[in-house]
Amino acid sequence: MELGFAVMCGKPLIIVKSQGAKPPSDLTRTDWIEFSPDNEKGFRRSLRQAFRAINETTKFEAIKLGTSLEAERMDCAIAFERAQRAFLLTGDSAIIDNVRSIRSRLKDSSSIDDVHRLKDDLGVFIRQAEQTDQ
């Protein structure tokens, strides 16, 4: 359940299982790294590749977030989604300020229901992220 929740939230996972172990049925379409004492070198190589892939994803998410924040006509919901993903990947507290920036751009649009929901979601994120940052 925890793995599914992490995936749903966009948190990247590196799953390691022993060579003969069967993966849980809900992970049959998920990639994992198999560990075999007979192939430690291959395991280390696979693990390094997985970490490189996560680092590349982190850089890409930062670029997407920066692009969203710089847009003259920002899609605030997409910018917020990118901020959440970037925060999950890095835990960088500067992203909390990015979310505040998104929220401030929404202040002038008071008649759209989706905007109200998004404002509430932004506030919840800021409070939760600040608690993890302590």
Polypeptide structure, described:
By secondary structure, the chain is mainly alpha-helical. Helices cover 64% and strands 4% of the residues. It is built from 5 helices and 2 strands. The chain has helices spanning 2-8, 40-70, 76-90, 94-106, 113-132, and strands spanning 16-18, 33-35. It has a two-stranded parallel ribbon. Helix 3 (76-90) runs antiparallel to helix 4 (94-106) and helix 4 (94-106) packs antiparallel against helix 5 (113-132). The two termini are 27 Å apart.
Question: Structural class, please?
Answer: mainly alpha
What sort of overall outline do the alpha carbons produce when their principal axes are compared?
A: elongated
Strand order in the largest sheet = 1-2
DSSP summary, beta strand count = 2
Provide the low-confidence segments as ranges.
Answer: none
Q: Indicate the radius of gyration in whole angstroms.
A: 19 Å
- End-to-end distance: 27 Å
Helix content: 55-70%
Order of helical and strand elements: HEEHHHH
Strand % is under 5%
Task: Report the average pLDDT across residues.
Answer: 82
The largest pleated sheet is described as: 2 strands, parallel
Helix count from the secondary structure assignment? 5
Task: Itemize the secondary structure elements and their pairings.
Layout: H1 2-8, E1 16-18, E2 33-35, H2 40-70, H3 76-90, H4 94-106, H5 113-132
Parallel strand pairs: 1-2
List keywords for this structure.
134 residues; mainly alpha; 5 helices; 4% strand; elongated
Short description:
This protein has 134 residues and is mainly α. The protein contains 5 helices and 2 strands; from the N terminus they run αββαααα.
